[in-house]
């Protein structure tokens, strides 16, 4: 079932509409549509905000999944990442998590989030991802070589899990303020990745995040030293799996000014490049 929250805008530069269940608003570019979609996954209703460019049914279109942090909402993720505005040619999907016990906070699971390891919550979130991807490919002309995932905090943990378990469908990933758990390290394969980290993060410790960066650098066979431009550090890879890091001086909050760099990184990578390199 699809409930339209926004209609196409032709004469307006953007439309701002309040999503009543989340009590939030976000903007939609001209000649585009954003809607709340629902799926039933093993008897549970799941939902996401889906932004679609005007030509998504007629032209091969990139697809980006954006996962909110623990206690977050799909509306806040859509607004914080602003990918519908910064990459209007891509389909952007911001799913809503279910109440989930947190790793570092909320052990009772009173707030929404995502599984961080295989087998948790009967893999309900991995199944949700599979269902979303399958249905979106049926409804739109998704470019299957350009499917991406990003997320913040607990959303980053789920992005790492997707990298490990659904890496065959992802061209690149961009986790923010997250760390790879030991279980995930054992099953993950090289993949172009951009990792965002705050030097003063007191929740997901910066030392945990730098350890993750070093693990990914070695996994992706990246060379040192990186090329540094401001907060961006780019490591070339001998197996076509480059690593880019965005190290900012802030804390655990999402660095909204990093999104243009995320978009640029995603636009540089597609699955065909990785497959041809490995052949």
UniProtKB/TrEMBL annotation:
Domain Dienelactone hydrolase: residue ranges: 48-237
Q: Where in the cell is it found?
A: Secreted
Gene3D superfamilies found in the cross-reference section: alpha/beta hydrolase
Question: Per its UniProt record, what InterPro entries does this chain match?
Answer: AB_hydrolase_fold, Dienelactn_hydro, FaeB/C/D
Point out the coiled-coil segments of this chain: none
Q: What is its main location?
A: secreted
Q: Which SUPFAM superfamilies match?
A: alpha/beta-Hydrolases (SSF53474)
Q: Under what name is this protein listed?
A: Dienelactone hydrolase family protein
Organism, as annotated: Aureliella helgolandensis
């Amino acid at each position: 079932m699809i409930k339209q929250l926004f209609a196409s805008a032709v004469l307006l530069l953007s439309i701002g509409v309040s999503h009543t269940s989340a009590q939030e608003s976000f903007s939609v570019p001209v000649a585009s549509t954003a809607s709340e979609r629902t799926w039933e996954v093993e008897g549970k209703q799941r939902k996401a905000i889906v932004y679609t460019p005007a030509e998504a049914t007629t032209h091969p279109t990139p697809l980006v999944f954006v996962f909110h942090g623990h206690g977050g909402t799909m509306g806040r993720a859509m607004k914080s990442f602003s990918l519908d505005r910064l990459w209007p040619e891509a389909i952007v999907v911001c799913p809503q998590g279910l109440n989930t016990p947190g790793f570092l906070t909320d052990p009772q699971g009173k707030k929404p989030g995502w599984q961080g390891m295989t087998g948790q919550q009967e893999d309900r979130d991995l199944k949700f991802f599979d269902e979303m991807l399958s249905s979106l490919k049926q409804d739109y002309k998704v470019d299957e070589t350009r499917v991406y995932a990003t997320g913040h905090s607990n959303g980053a943990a789920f992005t790492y899990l997707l990298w490990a378990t659904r890496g065959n469908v992802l061209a690149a990933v961009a986790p923010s303020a997250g760390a790879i758990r030991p279980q995930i390290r054992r099953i993950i394969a090289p993949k172009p990745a951009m990792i965002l980290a705050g030097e003063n993060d007191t929740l997901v410790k910066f030392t945990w995040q730098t350890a993750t960066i070093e693990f990914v650098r070695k996994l992706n066979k990246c060379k040192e030293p990186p090329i540094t431009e401001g907060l961006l550090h780019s490591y070339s890879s001998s197996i076509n799996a480059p690593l880019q890091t965005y190290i900012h001086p802030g804390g655990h909050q999402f660095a909204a000014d990093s999104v243009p760099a995320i978009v640029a990184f995603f636009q540089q990578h597609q699955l065909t490049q990785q497959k041809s390199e490995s052949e």
